[in-house]
Specification:
CATH topology of the largest domain: D-amino Acid Aminotransferase, Chain A, domain 1
Largest sheet: 8 strands, antiparallel
Strand order of the largest sheet: 13-12-9-10-11-14-18-16
Structural class: alpha+beta
CATH architecture of the largest domain: 2-Layer Sandwich
CATH class of the largest domain: Alpha Beta
Shape: globular
Length: 409
């Protein structure tokens, strides 16, 4: 029998983008898994599992209870945005440490979060719920253009669109409504003030109500009016961290989060932070991996530590920078070729990873018809001494990688 504590992971995600999370947690804990499909790549990192319908809260709860009967669990954790609420409910049902389901629900619902930000004086965007196009028109009359229309409870910038004038509103409202209809929690749409400025995220760890901002991630977005995320860069010595950390901590506190890892998104408007949202889990798009490459801080392990009632070690052990670039086609179509200059890759140690996520013959579909799940062909990761060097290297590598599509007629 292992002497290590045992943690239950709910919904491990896919190997490509979330495999590092499970691997890093398994380096410190014995892991049991609650998953929707029979494990494959996860098997080296787990000691037991249960397969359940994760979209059914009752089935998820029953599966978790069954694992708890077989194992002495120290905690329950997830890095899946769509399972934050049922995971919190499961942890509480098992008598284990967790934020309440109500707190997680507030994080999941952008309308509720905006209300709490206002109540606690956290600088955010003005926001109005719109159930119909008429209500959206009335909201724009109050807010003025440009506005952002988005689902109240979804993720991945799906259904999020900027609107610059009334002629664009009907199509934009339909686009956001289609994204919102995919939510199992709230199918409402929000019309919000457009925050004009660079977008960043603050990667935070909260323990006993004290939030530590461990890194700031600078984002590069794709073409307007959509908000697809193209690049992320993390620099261990980024001076912006000190400026944005207090606002990130205030947002976490406003939502009632006392323990956990958070991915806090904001924009800098006239140099001042304004909140977009708080995601109460390890960030997606490999950002947690970038944080470790740049600083040495292990966010997935920190999440497991907190779930198990342990104090996470947030001591930086590296002092560098890292970045990721998502590979998109220039237009929608059938993927006909994907290529990396092999001599370049073989002799470039700072090119840490090139990962294809779509196969030849797959359809790549950009917004508005598609989203990040249908548009991305792959990604690559680089490291460097500074953010400037990482950005330069992202551009250098970009010239050595090609994605070719055939336009469909």
């Amino acid at each position: 029998m292992s002497a290590r504590p045992l943690v239950l992971v709910v919904s491990p995600g896919d190997e490509t983008l979330r495999g590092y999370c499970l691997e890093q947690v398994a380096a410190a804990y014995d892991v049991v898994l609650l998953t929707a499909t029979e494990p494959s790549w996860e098997r080296p990192f787990i000691v037991d599992h249960a397969v359940v319908d994760l979209t059914d809260p009752a089935a998820l709860l029953a599966g978790g209870r069954a694992l708890a009967e077989r194992h002495d669990l120290a905690g329950v954790v997830t890095w899946d945005e769509f399972h934050l609420v049922p995971t919190a409910r499961l942890a509480r049902a098992l008598g284990l440490s967790s934020p309440s389901a109500e707190v997680m629900r507030a994080c999941r619902n952008k309308s509720v979060a905006r209300t709490l930000f206002v109540r606690h004086g956290v600088p955010s965007a003005a926001s109005i719920t719109a159930r119909t196009l008429l209500e959206a028109e009335l909201a724009t009359a109050t807010l003025g253009y440009p506005v952002v229309i988005k689902p109240a409870a979804f993720a991945g910038a799906i259904g999020v669109i900027r609107v610059d004038g009334p002629q664009e509103l009907p199509a934009a409202f339909a686009f956001a409504s289609a994204g919102a209809s995919r939510s199992r929690e709230d199918t409402g749409v929000l019309v919000e003030e457009y925050l004009d400025g660079p977008e960043v995220s603050v990667e935070c760890v909260t323990h006993h109500g004290v939030t530590t901002a461990v890194a700031v991630n600078r984002k590069h977005l794709g073409p307007a009016p959509y908000f697809d995320q193209i690049d992320h860069t993390v620099d261990a010595t980024d001076p912006l961290l000190a400026q944005v950390a207090p606002t990130a901590a205030a947002a976490v506190k406003a939502l009632g989060i006392t323990d956990g890892v958070q991915h806090v998104e904001m924009r800098l408007v006239d140099g001042r932070p304004r909140l977009i949202e708080v995601n109460a889990r390890v960030a997606g798009d490999m950002i947690g991996h970038l944080v470790r490459l740049a600083t040495g801080i292990d966010l997935p392990k920190a999440a497991a530590d907190l779930a198990c009632g342990q104090t996470p070690d947030l001591t930086p052990t590296r002092n560098g920078a890292a970045g990721i670039r998502m590979l998109y086609p220039n237009a929608s179509g059938t993927l006909t070729a994907r290529h990396i200059n092999q001599p370049f890759a073989a002799h470039t140690p700072w090119l840490r990873q090139v990962q294809w996520i779509r196969e030849i013959g797959d359809q790549l579909v950009l917004p508005p018809e598609g989203d990040l799940y249908t548009a991305r062909a792959g990604f690559y990761i680089v490291t460097g001494r500074t953010a400037a060097e990482v950005t330069e290297r992202l551009d250098l590598a970009d010239d050595e990688i090609t994605v070719t599509v055939r336009a469909d007629r």
